[in-house]
């Protein structure tokens, strides 16, 4: 295998293994930033050695053992936790050759869960939580995170550095939160994963309508969380939502990257394996017998679309009822706006328009481009095309996504052309 091919393989291995390695090291040294540094040391050694020796049979175990040795060296140097490093040292050094199978099968579920709760700690800003989570759990480089969110690389680097310093300064323990704090902390974790996925699913700015890399990373982290927190229905709900939404990627954009709305998508292009996985995750959550939370309700809405073989078969009355339930457990103007769309599809555009018009004075939606976009769509269906054109232009002026702006301006031109006839 050529050097460049080995480096690509190492990069792929690192993406898969880095989270559990960092989680294991963080448990040893009680410092997320230091744990990442020690893991990176092992990666550097692999980059130096593997092109000459070849990739080991169990590369994840090799990286885990090498990084643990680095951690033991560190603990010895600072003369802390002497009993701990001696115990771990005896375990690793009991044979001349490490037991690769034992190392790779080392149970790290709790450690990964601790790492997720640490990177998503509420003491950090939302931006810092996202950057640190993608860095440590997603294995993304600072450059990749910056590119995905269209912010300067130094900004992302500063967020990550500040996040690590903040965690160290306030002495956030590398442990699962107390039971009383678990719901609030889990909410923070799910919020970060959801935020990452949404930015990939409908990018808020830039020249691409979707950024699959972000969605894939959010889904991967969500799947990890679902396996190590199997009794939390909202975790399965979020995973189900992401699985089903991800199934539409090939149908969501046209040849030039232009958006294709849900009702206009070619459903033959939907990934039915992801749909089945999503539906299975919903069933897994329902079997827990607990009340539906916002993510499970949203997943149920997505499932209605996924089960409809054609757009005309969509159960809009059921979707309207689900949005009504969502507004009860997680009320917000955005939920109300989405509810208006469902009502318009179930009972007519004039019903939806009444709800949308009631939102026009909502301060939080003043710069939200979906409000005029939805209003324009409803006005167009009612034949009020000139008014619709003005709404689409207003939406185009508010969005920061280039492909979406072009799409909205094309819709606006329909009303303009009608006015000239």
Short description:
The chain is built from 21 helices and two strands.
Structural features, described:
The chain is mainly α and 421 residues long. The chain has a domain at 3-106. It has helices at 3-29, 32-53, 59-78, 82-93, 100-104, 109-119, 126-136, 142-149, 153-169, 182-201, 212-228, 233-246, 249-252, 272-286, 294-307, 316-329, 333-347, 349-357, 370-381, 385-398, 402-420, and strands spanning 205-206, 400-401. It has a two-stranded parallel ribbon with strand order 1-2. It is elongated. The protein starts with a helix and ends with a helix. Mean pLDDT is 87; it is low at 95-108.
Question: What's the layout of helices and strands?
Answer:
Layout: H1 3-29, H2 32-53, H3 59-78, H4 82-93, H5 100-104, H6 109-119, H7 126-136, H8 142-149, H9 153-169, H10 182-201, E1 205-206, H11 212-228, H12 233-246, H13 249-252, H14 272-286, H15 294-307, H16 316-329, H17 333-347, H18 349-357, H19 370-381, H20 385-398, E2 400-401, H21 402-420
Parallel strand pairs: 1-2
Helix pairs in contact: 1-2, 1-3, 1-6, 2-3, 3-4, 6-11, 7-9, 7-10, 8-9, 10-11, 10-12, 11-12, 12-14, 12-15, 14-15, 15-16, 16-17, 17-18, 18-19, 19-20, 20-21
Spans of 5+ residues with little confidence (pLDDT < 50)? 95-108
Structural class: mainly alpha
How many strands, what sense, and barrel or not for the largest sheet? Answer: 2 strands, parallel
Number of strands: 2
Report the principal-axis shape: elongated
Ends apart, CA distance between termini: 66 Å
Fraction of residues in helix: over 70%
Mean pLDDT: 87
* Number of helical segments with 4 or more residues: 21
Q: Strand content of the residues, in percent? A: under 5%
Q: Kindly report the spatial arrangement of strands forming the biggest sheet.
A: 1-2
Radius of gyration: 25 Å
């Amino acid at each position: 295998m050529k050097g460049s091919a080995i480096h690509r393989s190492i990069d792929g291995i690192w993406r898969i293994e880095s989270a559990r390695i960092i989680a294991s090291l963080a448990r040893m040294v009680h410092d997320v930033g230091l744990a990442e540094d020690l893991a990176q040391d092992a990666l550097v050694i692999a980059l130096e050695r593997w092109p000459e020796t070849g990739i080991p049979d169990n590369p994840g175990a090799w990286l885990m053992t090498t990084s643990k040795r680095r951690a033991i060296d560190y603990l010895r140097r600072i003369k802390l936790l002497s009993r701990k490093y001696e115990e771990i040292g005896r375990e690793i050094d009991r044979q001349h050759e490490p037991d690769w199978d034992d190392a790779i099968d080392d149970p790290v579920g709790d450690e990964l869960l601790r790492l997720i709760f640490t990177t998503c700690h509420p003491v950090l800003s939302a931006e810092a939580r996202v950057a640190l989570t993608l860095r440590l759990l997603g294995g993304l480089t600072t450059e990749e995170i910056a590119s995905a969110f269209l912010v300067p690389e130094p900004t992302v680097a500063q967020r990550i550095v500040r996040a690590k310093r903040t965690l160290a300064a306030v002495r956030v323990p590398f442990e699962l939160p107390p039971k009383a704090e678990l719901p609030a902390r889990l909410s923070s974790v799910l919020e970060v994963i959801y935020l990452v996925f949404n930015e990939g699913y409908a990018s808020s700015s830039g020249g691409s309508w979707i950024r699959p890399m972000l969605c894939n990373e959010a889904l991967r982290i969500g799947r990890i969380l679902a396996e190590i927190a199997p009794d939390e229905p909202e975790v399965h709900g979020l995973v189900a939502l992401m699985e089903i939404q991800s199934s539409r990627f090939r149908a969501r954009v046209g040849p030039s990257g232009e958006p294709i709305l849900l009702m206009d998508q070619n459903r033959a292009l939907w990934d039915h394996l992801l749909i089945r996985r999503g539906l299975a995750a919903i069933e897994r959550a329902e079997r827990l017998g607990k009340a539906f939370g916002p993510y499970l309700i949203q997943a149920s809405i997505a499932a209605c679309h996924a089960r409809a073989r054609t757009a005309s078969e969509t159960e809009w009355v059921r979707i309207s009822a689900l949005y009504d339930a969502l507004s009860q457990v997680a009320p917000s103007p955005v939920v109300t706006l989405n509810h208006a769309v469902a009502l318009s599809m179930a009972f007519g555009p004039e019903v939806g328009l009444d709800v949308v018009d009631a939102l026009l004075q909502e301060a939080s939606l003043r710069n939200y481009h979906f409000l005029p976009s939805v209003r324009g769509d409803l006005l167009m269906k009612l034949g009020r095309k000139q008014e619709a054109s003005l709404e689409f232009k207003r939406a185009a002026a508010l969005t920061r996504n280039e492909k979406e702006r072009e799409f909205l301006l094309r819709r606006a031109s329909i009303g303009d052309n009608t006015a000239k006839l």
